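ugh ok fine here u go
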Amino acid sequence: MDRSLIRQLLEKEDVRLMKTKTSLATSLADIEEARPGISAEAGSDRRSFLRNSAVFGLTAAVGAGLLESTPSAQATTSGSLTSGDAAMLRFAAAAEILETDFWVQYNELAGVQDNEFPGGGGTGNSAFTEALSFLDSDMAQYVHDNTDDEFTHQNFLNAYLVSKGASPVSLERFRTLKGSTASGSTKKLRLTNLMQLTVDTSWWTRYRFDSRNPDLDPSFVFPQAVPTLAVGQHTAIPRTDADLSDSNFLQAIANTAGFHFATIEQGGTSLYPAMAQRAHSAEVLRILISIGPTETMHFQTWQDKAGNAKPLTAVDPVTGVSVTFPDLPNSTNQEFKANLIMPEPCPFLSRKLPRCSVIRPTETKGIAMGVVAFLTAMGLFRGQSQEFGAFMIGLAQAADAAQRGF
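structure:
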């Protein structure tokens, strides 16, 4: 992508490319120096992000330009908030909007169908709902309630920004992706893609290892709970009614969804405490440390249910991609046992200190860019535009520039 096109994309989002005296290679090196907040094994380092940014057709110059134009948190204000606090809340709001989008897709097909939250829609898909209930008989209720929670997060964060005179976030212009056409779906356009996912399940062992912490061991590769989900592209929802005809494959789709639920929510579990460390105002800190634990509650629920996934091997009749779900409940390996859902104590801050049961990672540096990289590598944005990619990078770079105020 040439420099002029990048400039056009960024200016559409009111992000001004500042002139630079350094080469793009130097700018890229600057970006890669920042350590991400999501662990390296999740494909969230800077090099992985730039490789995966091909999803949008982006180049290093996009990130470099945004990095140059990001203001200091104390340099300007946004309403009565510092620009840093506003930027972190905008990034959180964007993340919650994206979460809401894919949870709505899940709820349309496999959640409780009611009018509790606006924009839910859907009429349910009985076959997919039944397959998902193999993980737990209350899955439909859990899917519904998680969807409801994400709606409240996105709505609160945007309303709070407006109340402080800051600009809210809208991603509606990026709602361009086609989703499932299976029975039960509203067939509305989406922001996210649940039908071509590459799901990192290394969080399973990250929270079970007692000698490793990604904040202290950023290069350590945690084993995958379901190695075949971490390669290829897998659908987590029935794409059409044709996916309902093979019960074994349909169960594989439900299993994939179960692990994707936990994979997403563990990301939020790390995002909020990582950003909270750079909050300027006590009230913004309160917001971040109050929403964050709900993500942890979601994660705890979903990792418990993922452990009930039916052991099987299935081949996608459309793509030919194979997936194998191991028998985790009967694993004799301590790092894979399904019932060990409490975070194992691990090194924290320093190996000279006693081990502690903690959320990990919580490294604050580069956390927002790490999350964008993580979601990109997952395939959640497959089919999205260059403009969307530039916009998300802009939000992330601004959030990562925030400075602690007390």
